[in-house]
Amino acid sequence: MKRLIIFIIAATILSCSSKKQDTATETAVKEEKQVDRNYTVQLTDSQARNAQIVIGQLEKKEIANQLKVTGKVDVPPQNMVSVSFPLGGYLKSTNLLPGTYVRKGGVLGVLEDIQFIQLQQDYLSAKVRLQFLEADYKRQQTLDAGQATSTKMVQQVRSDYQSQRILLRSLEEKLRLIGLNPARLSEGNISKRVNIYSPISGYVSKVNVNIGKYVSPTDVLFELVNPADIHLVLTVFQKDVAKLRVGQKVITYTTSDTIRKIPATILLISQDVAPDGSVQVHCHFEYEEHKLLPGTFMNAEIETKNAEAFVLPETAVVSFENNHYVFVQKEENVYEMIPVQTGASENGYVALDDANSKALAGKPIVSANAYTLLMALKNKADE
């Protein structure tokens, strides 16, 4: 029995040791593949001939720096209007839907309320009262000239007349405020309804009411947008603001249509830096874009001043796992993959940052068919 127990314990230890060794071996193989994939690839003579590798070096060229940013279509505050009504009332009718085009002065809706009747009544009554007081005042002036009345009576009548003029004037302004013309108001056309008129020409962006709803003076009934002066607001990081200037050309395009380019010009650069370190740059489209709606997200490319930089052909740079790499020839048919940071690109060339430029200066770099080496490196890692 003791021998059996010893045998079982020994077998268990050997099994665990074997599993650990297998795991260590697999890890080593994976690490070896990872190293191979990340660093070097060696081609046979036959593979090298088929790959047609071209070797070059860094070149110094003058290249235009291109700043790529994003933004959103916006309209100036004077082109966005929230429509409310100075007096409360019940919405009797409206035919508006979001997207409906309305002209300035067009009827947006009709309100109905008893207070509209009262306001018109007050105005007409005040108008009649003023006529009486005006006649009485003139009569008192005549009597005063003949010393047939007291000075106190004249002053009282004049005070009543002036107060009534002020009252009538204020009622006129209240009527105009709700869209009624006092000059056209008479006892035969008093109405319980008033129209809501559009203050601008544009499109309805929001309808916040429905038929029969009671609205108060603080409620926003409709929201209108006039797209005639839409502009683009770009978000630019503070470090890049120094590269921009008013009047600079911008090429813009929507995220849904990258082929159709829309030219614009920088109109204003904000002097206020947001908490995230960004600055707003306002751009004006060079021609009216009726298809662009406020709130549309857009991409923009801004050409900054030309500058000398060390560049490589775009065919020398490969992209892999969201990083950029170039291949440096170490010896015949042996190449090492080096990570790089790229900059602006123009006419088939791409700039490298200063650190990469110094590290790669004078070294033989694969300038064409670099993707063939990347495929060979990946295939080697998968073996």
Structure write-up:
By secondary structure, this protein is an alpha+beta fold. It folds into four domains: 37-63 and 308-382, conserved putative lor/sdh protein from methanococcus maripaludis s2 fold (Beta Barrel), CATH 2.40.420; 67-77 and 226-307, Efflux pump adaptor protein, beta barrel domain (Elongation Factor Tu (Ef-tu), domain 3), CATH 2.40.30.170; 85-112 and 195-225, OB fold (Dihydrolipoamide Acetyltransferase, E2P) (Beta Barrel); 114-191. It has seven helices and 22 strands. A six-stranded antiparallel beta barrel has the order 3-12-15-14-13-16. Strands 1-19-18-17 form a four-stranded antiparallel beta sheet. A hairpin with a 2-residue loop joins β17 (318-320) and β18. α1 runs antiparallel to α7 and α3 (114-145) runs antiparallel to α4. The longest helix is centred in the N-terminal third of the chain and has 37 residues, at 2-38. The chain is elongated, with a radius of gyration of 41 Å. GO terms for molecular function: transmembrane transporter activity. Belongs to the membrane fusion protein (MFP) (TC 8.A.1) family. This is Membrane fusion protein, cobalt-zinc-cadmium efflux system.
